[in-house]
Amino acid sequence: GTVHGGVVAISDWYGMFLQMAGIGPEQWADASAAAANAWLQEHNAALNDDEEPLPLLYGVESKAGMLQAILTGNETNGLHPTLQISAKSVLAWPYKFVSSIQPFSNHTGPLYPNCSGTLESDNYRPWQNDSYVLEHYFAWSNDEEEMMTHMWGYDCGSVGCLFNVRDDPEEWLDLSTDPDHADLLEELRATLAKMNEGLFVPDRGLDAPEACQAGVDHGGYFGPFIDADDYYTEPKHQYTPEEERRNEVYMGLIEQLAVPEHQETIMKIVRQVYPEYLREPLEQSFDECINQASA
């Protein structure tokens, strides 16, 4: 019946579940990652000088002692000296460093979606920032200032923002301009830059109709589709005649969308109508915004 409010990373859950099953940290291992690393090392050794090697996979990153600390009511914050939150943020308890532009950086009331405290409107719902058509990103506005306003954006810039999330959990006070925190700010900025050197951001290639066909073959679930003949152990999904007809229409559409000339035509049309003509109907699809004063 207790609540734990300390720092816990997603990777910690794996170790905690293992410990619940009686498997201690000394037995934690990722055999699949180790096998993949053997292949990666062999692959990298055969590359030419102008080819970039693939990074090795990490092992089990769960922190030992996490489960015991939670169950005994002890603090877990110190178990992660530094924890990378994203490519733009790192946590070194109790300080959080944030760089660049952060969307949805607004202090509203406790209920969401909540528009209290946002400029002059009680219905200032934030725009979405992940609109894509055929893997091409489309902003909701061509006006950068308007985009920042409607995204509730806050720009920490290249210098970054610094917050003490223990004393200031809602992040009201930016300490980046405080001379007493100048060294820490520089340290965390360098730490984040070092961590980002290990980010794996691969070129994932182009859309492939074969991926969609593999999903259709296996009941609508996407999965491996290259060199995957021995991957699936179950027989292909059995569809009803009506579902078969639907799948034929779907795959026919996918194959047409995969034609470069067709994609070019679609993109030309989208650029003409987006965002001016599509923004208003898209906005109407948002959740109704709560006015904190009347909630």
Can you walk me through this structure?
33% of the residues lie in helices and 8% in strands. By secondary structure, the protein is an alpha+beta fold. The strands form three sheets. A four-stranded antiparallel beta sheet has the order 1-2-3-8, with helices on one face. Strands 4-7 form a two-stranded antiparallel sheet. Strand 1 and strand 2 form a beta hairpin. The chain starts with 11 loop residues before the first helix and ends in a 12-residue tail after the last helix. The model has no long low-confidence stretch (mean pLDDT 87).
Question: Key terms for this structure?
Answer:
single chain, 295 residues, alpha+beta, 4-stranded antiparallel β-sheet, two-stranded antiparallel ribbon, globular
Structure described in brief:
This protein has nine helices and eight strands.
